[in-house]
Amino acid sequence: MSTVHQKNVIIAVDALGGDFAPKNVLDGVALAVLRDENLRVMLCGPAEVVEPFASSEAAKGRVDAVATTEEIPMDEQDTARAVRKLKDASIVVAARLVKEGTAQGFISAGSTAACLAAGTLIVGRIRGVARPTLAVVLPGKKPCVLADTGANADVKPELLVQFAEMGRAYARTILGVDSPRIALLNIGSEEGKGSELAKEAQILMREQTDNFIGNVEGRDILDGTADVIVTDGFTGNVVLKTLEGSMGFLLGKIKTVLMATTLSKLAALVLKGSFAGLKQELDPDQYGAAPLLGVKGLCLVAHGSSSPEAIANGILVGAKAVRNELVEKIAASMQSP
């Protein structure tokens, strides 16, 4: 069922991004335009892929084909060079549409490094942002934003302060939290704990970050203690991958146990609705993509193995971020004294 929205939004989509492209991307686009009748998609990819889809019934007359002739491979090592050299690559063209103002955001499930390079080099950083941060919404007792999750492996304390401000804007925009609680990921909750980076960041965040509640440990991430959790990209990426693997493992184990005997299968049938709700609550596809916060337009990075549902949700989250002026809010926060 489609949903009526007040503001028209145009999102550029990389048709070649992901392990299961273009099929999953096209199916995801079809779901997104079905659910949001004020959404328009600019589909970037080979003519033989994007043009037939744009004229199909699934496109609802709201998908424009943007034919491209190049592609940045998933295993490309020098992504910055590739973004500069392959000017007709689907990721590059999608990012350029945002820079030119033709689209308000772009999404790709392709190479994360290429997406980050395209967002930074082509779309460009917001004035005052030292480095953009990759933010992910995590499930739990209450969803929370984790930043950074891979854009910046090595950081300085002042960067973590900026990540907190950009994460705050995202939590307000997407999660609807009026006054997000900000925390620093650390090895202990006590003040003064952690590495030199963590100790220095604590001091700066207490001085400069509104509603900073101090340190949280890894076990606190999913318990709803904080709305925004800040860390460096190396640690954040390890946390993210660990949580993804753990959730997949636990859900798989539950399924194995429930399918083990006739009695357990009957119990599973009785509890089917409850388990479906649990799976949805823990599903990483719910938000679909991680935004690169701190660039002048919306840049969304989806997982390489994204399902059509994840692609659709990523596009719809992007549309919501545009309608709620996420980029403008981040820009304003960076200019505040």
Could you walk me through the main structural features you see in this protein, from its secondary elements to its overall organization?
This protein is an alpha/beta fold and 337 residues long. The protein folds into 2 domains: 1-129 and 294-337, Isopropylmalate Dehydrogenase (3-Layer(aba) Sandwich), CATH 3.40.718; 134-284, Isopropylmalate Dehydrogenase, CATH 3.40.718. The protein is built from 12 helices and 11 strands. It has an 11-stranded mixed sheet with strand order 3-2-1-4-11-10-5-6-9-7-8, sandwiched between helices. Helix 3 (79-85) crosses helix 5. The chain starts with 8 loop residues before the first strand and ends with a helix.
Features:
12 helices, globular, 11 strands, Isopropylmalate Dehydrogenase, 11-stranded mixed β-sheet, alpha/beta
Element layout with pairings:
Blueprint (H helix, E strand, L loop, with lengths): L8 E6 L8 H13 L3 E7 L1 H8 L8 E5 L11 H7 L4 H10 L5 E4 L3 H12 L9 E6 L5 E4 L9 H19 L6 E4 L10 H13 L3 E5 L11 E3 L2 H26 L3 H9 L1 H11 L6 E5 L4 E5 L5 H16 L2 H10 L2
Parallel strand pairs: 1-2, 1-4, 2-3, 4-11, 6-9, 7-8, 7-9
Antiparallel strand pairs: 5-6, 5-10, 10-11
Helix pairs in contact: 1-11, 3-5, 4-5, 6-7, 6-12
Radius of gyration: 20 Å
Overall pLDDT confidence: 89
Number of strands: 11
> So how many helices?
12
Q: Which parts are unreliable, with pLDDT below 50 for 5 consecutive residues or more?
A: none
Main sheet: strand order:
3-2-1-4-11-10-5-6-9-7-8
For the record, the CATH class of the largest domain is Alpha Beta
| CATH architecture annotation of the largest domain | 3-Layer(aba) Sandwich
| SS strand fraction | 15-25%
Instruction: Specify the overall morphology.
Output: globular
> Under CATH, the topology of the largest domain is which?
Isopropylmalate Dehydrogenase
Largest beta-sheet details: 11 strands, mixed
Percent helix: 40-55%
CATH-level-4 superfamily name of the largest domain: Isopropylmalate Dehydrogenase
Overall tally of structural domains: 2
Secondary-structure element sequence? EHEHEHHEHEEHEHEEHHHEEHH
